């Protein structure tokens, strides 16, 4: 993340105010989504773009189940999010278990925080999932392209992209 002011955005003036803040109902929504993602048969439908990350706390050792939207990109999965506390528990070389469609899978997480990589990867995510783009404060131009000034603003406000590579 940068300490630059919004005026320092090299792509111009953003069209949004940035990512949506976490609402009061987010905890209840996450509990409901986690429950739906556990139901056999339904999890494949509900989880078409959703997965549960099973994140192990680096200090507590507790496992936290975090529902997230993802974009499949080649062999990897991409997750665009703000720098939430749970993101600090992800470390490259330490496998992360995720569940999507009812099947647990192992991935190597790479947290991208550099502006160039966040912009490049968030553009892929935004093109694939307009709802995710909206939550992350990314609008589109008249041709349907993600607004680079909005993506840069998302990065300035703590946006990161988590790249999950399958563990073989």
Automatic annotation (TrEMBL):
Please give the residue ranges the record annotates as the region Disordered.
Answer: 1-26
Q: Which InterPro entries match?
A: Split_barrel_FMN-bd
Q: What is this protein called?
A: DUF385 domain-containing protein
Q: Which organism is it from?
A: Nocardia jinanensis
